[in-house]
Amino acid sequence: MLGPGDDAALVSAPDGRVVVTTDLLLEGRHFRRDWSSAYDIGRKAAAQNLADVSAMGAEPTAIVVGLGLPAATGTAWVDGLADGFREECALVGASVVGGDIARSADGVVIGVTALGDLGGRAPVTRSGARPGDLVAIAGRLGHAAAGLALLLAGREGFPELVEAHRRPRPPYSCGPEAARLGATAMLDVSDGLLQDLGHIAEESGVSIDLDPAALPLPGPLTEAAGALAADPLEWVLTGGDDHALAATFPQDTPLPPHWLVVGRVGEGSEVTVGGRPAGPGGWDHFRE
Amino acid sequence: MLGPGDDAALVSAPDGRVVVTTDLLLEGRHFRRDWSSAYDIGRKAAAQNLADVSAMGAEPTAIVVGLGLPAATGTAWVDGLADGFREECALVGASVVGGDIARSADGVVIGVTALGDLGGRAPVTRSGARPGDLVAIAGRLGHAAAGLALLLAGREGFPELVEAHRRPRPPYSCGPEAARLGATAMLDVSDGLLQDLGHIAEESGVSIDLDPAALPLPGPLTEAAGALAADPLEWVLTGGDDHALAATFPQDTPLPPHWLVVGRVGEGSEVTVGGRPAGPGGWDHFRE
């Protein structure tokens, strides 16, 4: 409604409530300029915030961006970053409505805040899962982790996985869809499926058991794991950065096919895989 | 409505529109940990964003904070910062509803995004000033600049001015008040009165002439200027960081006493002081 150029922007919030989330990305820690283009960094920084909005069941409406740039940063790099922000937002009909630029002494700093509108729906939090609910995921798991492992190992090939690390593709529309379908809890998988489902288990006071046979292991993932002597299921269970959505639904919910049922909510407090508990060692506990 | 702990927070936006603004503060550039306590840095970081919301004519409702912290940052420092955020927000009835913490390699990074509600009012932008309008300010000018000059010079004394540098006190309630009074343009003075009024002149296509005799020069400011052989009017005209509000009003507007008339809008495009133009050299042009 009012974009950059004033003290503040004005964004439509027809619901009468607004969803808001923020992330800070630091060069070297969250991205590397030698591994990702400015454009991809912009896409990724926007994506991880837009995915958080989607994970509440809301439609993203706008982002604002705070940038810290070292003196030597070229305008082409900044333009690429801005293009990335804009194009990722365009995927969901959102806009970049404001920002702030400062000179940083050392390394690029990117702060993104995303807003969203619930369209009258109740927000889907982490605390509503109930024993008997289905656990389902939408989007990719383990791809970004595999891509990062390939980059770290200096391995060529598997462009789809490296691309997944550089530029996540969150299933944005699946968040509001899940809310309409009656999801009881939802989050976006940013730290790994096991760890993030642990948040739902804790906040909802339930246990979650995943069916290892139901977890998707597409070809590129198993092939890359073979090339690196890695375990693809470990990437799927513990890899972050794909920004899949994980949600729980009442057991009779008719789920569309892009929501893949991978487990079940029960009484208790643990996250297990095929009934085996996930201890402090994480994934290692399931492996033989 | 929903605070920290989920993918995103939920904030009431009864107006159906939401005001949003963001700022990035970098250690060494925007604050120094040896000059300001964590608490004061938190107060200041919140204040400058809440003031931007107020300058649109809106009531601040919430902030979210992204923090980059070096490994050695103590919890007491972080607690002090959080207290500062919370207490500055409490001044306006707003809350800290979410955040993100990352490990930074070098220096504290603070990204603050503030939201606000217009309560049905039109936003007051920078583009509505018309020839004949009054120019008025609310809040302090030059105090923070004087405090910074005292710190840079290592001068003792004048605690009120040093305090003004460490912790601005924006006149929050005056922003929505100005909107109700029919302000035609408004902004918060963050870069200096001349420079910021230049934004109104440019966006509105008008000139602005300030009356030097009307500009407030309180005792501590003239005394500190005497001690440093500085010009207090220069601090008032070019000093930022006090986050006063500057607004234009139709000339017959009955202004309450905390809105001080300091100038007049005219035809043209320049900002002048007592009829003398402000060129690229800024304040130097007015001095003799």
UniProtKB/TrEMBL annotation, chains A, B:
In which residues is Mg(2+) 5 bound? Answer: D191
Keywords assigned by UniProt, alphabetized: ATP-binding, Kinase, Magnesium, Metal-binding, Nucleotide-binding, Thiamine biosynthesis, Transferase
**Binding positions for Mg(2+) 4?**
D7, T21, D52
- Which positions in this protein are listed as binding ATP? G99, D100, R126, S190
Report domain PurM-like N-terminal positions: 5-116
Q: Name one GO molecular function term.
A: magnesium ion binding
User: Per its UniProt record, what InterPro entries does this chain match?
Assistant: PurM-like_C_sf, PurM-like_N, PurM-like_N_sf, ThiL-like
Binding of Mg(2+) 2 occurs at D23, D52
Q: What is its EC number?
A: 2.7.4.16
Which sites bind Mg(2+) 3? D7, D52, D188
CDD domains for this protein = ThiL
Under which pathway is this protein filed?
Cofactor biosynthesis; thiamine diphosphate biosynthesis; thiamine diphosphate from thiamine phosphate: step 1/1
| Residues engaged in binding Mg(2+) 1 | T22, D23, D100
* Biological role stated in the UniProt entry: Catalyzes the ATP-dependent phosphorylation of thiamine-monophosphate (TMP) to form thiamine-pyrophosphate (TPP), the active form of vitamin B1.
Family under the similarity heading: Belongs to the thiamine-monophosphate kinase family.
Q: What else is known?
A: Reaction mechanism of ThiL seems to utilize a direct, inline transfer of the gamma-phosphate of ATP to TMP rather than a phosphorylated enzyme intermediate.
Which NCBIfam families does the record match to this protein?
PRK05731.1-4, thiL
Protein name according to UniProt: Thiamine-monophosphate kinase
What gene, per UniProt, encodes this protein?
thiL
